[in-house]
Write a structure and sequence with these properties.
Strand 9 and strand 10 form a beta hairpin. The protein contains eight helices and 19 strands. It folds into two domains: about 200 residues, no CATH class; about 130 residues, 2-enoyl-CoA Hydratase, Chain A, domain 1 (Alpha-Beta Complex), CATH 3.90.226. Helix 2 runs antiparallel to helix 3, helix 3 packs antiparallel against helix 4 and helix 7 packs parallel to helix 8. The radius of gyration is 24 Å and the shape is globular.
């Protein structure tokens, strides 16, 4: 029986929450746990549980390792995460032997707690029979996926039906196909399953953003699988150019401008329009460059749109991207620090991190006429959206 490596990327639960905030440090200074391959923080060595996420970090002079822990089994995921010891950044110690962990200072931190020892399940050898592998797959979702009710998805029934087909002689390929079948119809674009067995790929991908769906639909159905990636890239380029032309000529009457990641102009005389197809900057090599380019583009756009009585922000074809870019855009549309959302693990509602939008410092705020009315809408994900 070959071992299947399962890597499941699960979304965080993002929703306003009255959860306790005392444990969250507003702006901690993160320091690398390792420098030049050696432990640099004296209090970093040991085992740290990422509370609510079912993972453990284990740090020693030999490097950093990571483990997935579930109610059924635990296993080493260091290679699957491509975790390097240079990626481990720690915040200062907090009460209760806790601190925050990130792999980049700009990401949402994980609250970790020191353990006295590594759970035995992390190092226990398991005879990975088909049934046990399936149980581990089930436990990852049953323990940590928060949105089955939101999607009205009966996970337990799916798992029960698939488990009934598993025998000691179930092949790796058959097992992978059963796992993927459990996710059919979930409708969550942030959940994927991918495994290769004897050269054959078995995968489940959630629905793609609307823009990508339209691109895929434009590719001839008889395109060979080996040419699909190239065909998609070419079709995406054509679609992007068509969108640029449509916005410039159709919506903005030939007078629009663009600077990645946005396009802008006026609809008639006094209505501003900003279009963003994704929260990223194509030519930027670092996150800092992305954010700087976004601020520059928004500053130029809002200067050009001075005096409009209404502003349309069009993200109808948003394909996703980097939180920091969306935060930078929003920072030009607020005059004070505002709570945007609260982010934390569904398994631990007492742990959360408040994400605030800060006014863009030193750059232009919306230079609109004094009678402009701003309205806020609460937006939540919808199936397929």
């Amino acid at each position: 029986m070959k071992t299947l490596l399962l890597t499941c990327w699960l979304p965080l639960q993002v929703a306003p929450s009255p959860a306790v905030q005392e444990q969250v440090v507003a702006a901690p200074t993160y320091l690398p746990a390792y420098v030049d391959g050696k432990l640099a923080l004296e209090d970093a060595a040991g085992h740290w549980e990422m509370l609510g996420y079912g993972q453990i970090l284990s740090l020693s002079e030999d490097g950093a390792r990571a483990y997935s822990i579930t109610s059924k089994y635990s296993w080493d995921i260091t290679d699957a995460l491509e975790l390097e010891h240079e990626d481990v950044l720690f915040g200062p110690m907090l009460p209760g032997n806790q601190r925050h962990f990130v792999t980049s200072p700009d990401e949402t931190p994980y609250l970790v707690q020191r353990l006295d020892k590594l759970p035995e399940s992390c190092t226990t050898e398991v005879d990975w029979t088909p049934a046990r592998l399936f149980d581990a797959f089930d436990a990852v979702f049953a323990d940590h996926y928060p949105f089955f009710e939101v999607w009205d998805f009966d996970w337990d029934s799916r798992v029960k039906a698939a488990r009934a087909q598993i025998t000691p002689t179930t092949t790796d390929l058959e097992l992978a196909q059963l796992m993927a079948s459990c996710l059919d119809g979930l409708g969550d674009g942030h959940v994927s399953f991918e495994v290769e067995v004897d050269g054959e790929e078995v995968e489940h991908d959630g629905p793609q953003p609307l823009l990508f769906q339209r691109v895929a639909a434009s590719i001839p159905k008889d395109t060979p699988e080996s040419e699909m990636e190239k065909a998609f890239g070419e079709a995406l380029g054509r679609t992007a150019e068509s969108i640029r032309t449509g916005i410039r000529e159709g919506i903005l009457g030939g007078n629009g401008k663009e600077s990645d990641p946005i396009k802008w102009g006026r609809v008639e005389r006094d209505i501003g329009y900003i279009f963003c197809s994704g929260m990223g900057v194509e030519d930027a090599e670092t996150l800092e460059e992305m954010v700087a380019a976004t601020h520059a583009a928004m500053n130029e756009a809002l200067t050009d749109l001075k005096g409009v009585r209404a502003l349309v922000i069009d993200i109808s074809l948003n394909g996703g991207g980097v939180d920091a870019v969306s935060h930078a855009i929003a920072g030009h549309l607020t005059d004070k620090r505002r709570l945007a959302y609260t982010k934390g693990p569904s398994a631990r509602p007492d742990i959360s991190h408040e994400i605030y939008i800060e006014p863009a410092a030193g750059v232009r705020q919306p230079p609109m006429s004094s009678h402009l009315k701003l309205r806020n809408w609460a937006v939540r994900p919808t199936p397929g959206g």
